[in-house]
User: What shape does this take?
Amino acid sequence: MVRVILSSGNQHKISELKSILGEFDLEVISKNDIGYSEFEVEEDGDTLEENSLKKAMELWKKTGNIVIADDTGLFVEYLNGEPGVYSARYAGEDATYEGNNKLLLEKLENVPIVKRKAYFKTVVSIVDSNGTSFKVEGICKGLIGLEPEGDNGFGYDPIFIVEGLNKTFAQMTDSEKNKYSHRGKAVRNLKNIIGEILK
Assistant: This one.
């Protein structure tokens, strides 16, 4: 069984990735599982791609194992792409999910639903045991709702209405979310790369 380390301590992300990669004979663990819970990489890139690759490479240098890292951003058209690469810390360095959602809804106050177009983008980087890096992405389009709906998921899930489904990620089951989400799409795109790495 090949060990794959996720450069994340976020249990929601880890569960999603384990579920999607379940068909492979992999031991999928988080950085926390190997004693790197305090290991943090400064996400100072201008793009999701830069941040994702930096997180994967820095952990690979310490472990030599296959490492997967991702960076995700929510891009709102009306706000010229905000919060973008700052999505996780939109309301400040120690921002909570609720604080980020509150700030975004405040910035969109009185903006009609038709002008609240947005998309989520996830970039996943994988570094193999030789230090070779690969990158995939996934995008999910939708709208920012008028108020939070649903109690599943995390982050901006309660206010992001998925295009064509008329419900938020937080109103979906985990398997439904994996089917439509940006991260689900990115990780499915990753499957081919993992298949090649494991040959």
Summary: The mean pLDDT is 92.
